[in-house]
Design brief:
The complex is a heterodimer of chains A (396) and B (337). Helix content of chain A is 44%, strand content 21%. Chain A is of the alpha/beta class. Chain A folds into two domains: 243 residues, Rossmann fold, CATH 3.40.50.2300; 145 residues, Rossmann fold (3-Layer(aba) Sandwich), CATH 3.40.50. In chain A, helix 2 packs parallel to helix 11, helix 5 crosses helix 6 and helix 11 runs parallel beside helix 14. Chain B is 72% helix and 1% strand. In chain B, helix 1 packs across helix 6, helix 1 crosses helix 12 and helix 6 packs antiparallel against helix 9.
Chain lengths: 396, 337
Amino acid sequence: MRGFTIAALAATAIGSGAALADDHEVKIGVLLGFTGPIESLTPAMAAGAEMAMKEVTDSAMLLGGKALVPVRADSTCVDSAAASAAAERLVTAEGVAAIMGADCSGVTTAVLQNVAVPNGIVMISPSATSPALSAIEDGGLFFRTAPSDARQGAIAAEILREKGVEEIALTYTNNDYGKGLAEAIAQNFEALGGTVTINTPHEDGKADYSAEVGSLAAAGGDVLVVAGYLDQGGRGIVQGAIDTGAFDVFYLPDGMVGDSLPAAIGSALDGSYGAAPGSTGENATTFEGLAVSAGFEAGPYAGESYDAAALIALAMQKAGSTKASDFAAAVLDVANAPGEPIGPGELKRALEIIGAGGEVDYQGATNVELIGPGESAGSYRQIEIRDGAIATVGYR
Amino acid sequence: MADILNALAVFGNFVAVPGIAYGSQLALGALGITLIYAVLRFANFAHGDTMAFGTMAAILGTWGLQAAGIGLGPLPTALLALPLGIAATAGLVLLTDRYIYRYHRARRSTPVTFVILSIGVMFVLNGLVRFVIGPDDQRFADGERFIIRARDFEALTGLEEGLTIRTTQLLTLVVAVAVVAALFWFLRRTRTGKAMRAFSDNEDLALLSGVDPDRVVRVTWLIAAALATVAGVLYGLDKSFKPFTYFQLLLPMFAAAIVGGIGHPVGAIAGGFVIAFSELGLTYAYKRVAGYLLPEPWAPEGLMQLLGTDYKFAISFIILVVVLLVRPTGLFRGQVI
């Protein structure tokens, strides 16, 4: 009897599921870490992605008036097993056509290998930056609107060499992000003729970094590159190096750029410099305005999330299909030139142009330009610490 | 000659000065552990979190004083809040003794029972501190940060290498010396101190001579609370306060107490410095020091680093294991106060 009830319930559930998943609706997974270390960023990221989907739905232009329905799932940012299970649910139970996510590099890799590739689902991550994802076996299904840290490494090396730096000491936070970024910086800097005197990890969450600073000081160098976190070990290293007079100038990658660092260290940080992802110009401003009128604050990676969702919709329109095997190849087409440039809030126009057989060059909130295996070329904001505040020097 | 001075300056800047400060902090912590062991005869695993609790109370007091605009000029305000921290911690340890340890003392439970109890207390304190002040870093040092900065030292002496001495480092040393002197005077000269030593040496004999055991236990807890709070506040001023790092300090502090000979106050101090200098000395890269001392052609290419800095914690663990294997009583033949 009990077995029968469950079977009946299951049948009803499947029945209602099928009724919802009619031809009119296309479900898109929004797989982000709604709990975990970046839970403060993900609400705005999800809101960004959902804003793009709503824009597409409201336009009634996608493949003859289809609606995009977001389905949220929790990637946790750190737990690969939980993220894979959540993605599995999106694919098998919800039947999503694509996944906007995941967010952190580790879980993104796991979901891609365990769920997206075996099931043939397109994934566009707004925020995974590990260089390892560039070379991953993805069957042409994985894209990201965030730049790889390999790109950040190249930019860091360029900036350092332009400043005439010959020797750097390098320390990184001991995780996938820090290690990947440090390797990228070291390789590029050496390729440009510089010398890396030491490349050593530090652990976050310690009270005392004098031993780490001691070995960095022993190795020496013109500039200390700290690929860490500004509220964690990175700050401890900078503070220790300044206190002991080991280094005067620091290079600050994205994890170290924030107002709390100069506030904590004070004037001794003046003259240090760095770069963090950041786009400029009309599109970024327009997106911020759109976000405010949609009722959320455009935080870090919210623009990238909007762009990821928009690219999914435009690629579907281009391929004339919601099947991953059809539209995956179209993502690069719509993201890059040639074609009509498309900013944020212009998705209706883009869908019209594509529907009429034209070409678009999607720019979106973050001036998207997909390179290599389908990742953002990335625009970086070069900064310098002046009078205890972060000053923008330029973009590259 | 200048080369030797430069080498000394580098060594002082990165090993000697931080080592002396860290060693003093460990020594004060290990003293508390060793006193509890000598009198109450168990290894108090809650000592690290007692330190965290005392420091937390002192930090809250510091914030109150800062808000009221009271300060000590060039010295950190936390020194004024120290008595408050000690009082709060004393109340806490007396409460835990009254409601947790006393029952088992009366029943003469085995030492391992006490160790397990102290682990329980440790977890409760762990949670309590996080509830009150949160799990994050807290910086509460104010006043003048440096006694001498690296750049000023270079200008002053004309050397190529700078030497930094921070206020908190000197303060740690001064306070530690004062506290240790007071403790030894107390143990050797006062009636209560002598009663504690007698109690530690032979409990039954001490009881026969009319020593009040409850009083000895109470005074021991009070001293341990004061030592833990002073050690914790000095460590927090010098570095930073974070509940988890105080919990982690348990390993080097126990290693210090055991290396010196547990139950032996002089041993705890010696042990603190042995552990601190091993941690810093074995993970320091001697490239620059050797560069000054050796003639030009012999200058080292590599970093001359024995162990990566990641192994800092492993060092106290290795020392602990080696001492327990080779000389279980420690440097100073422990077990008596």
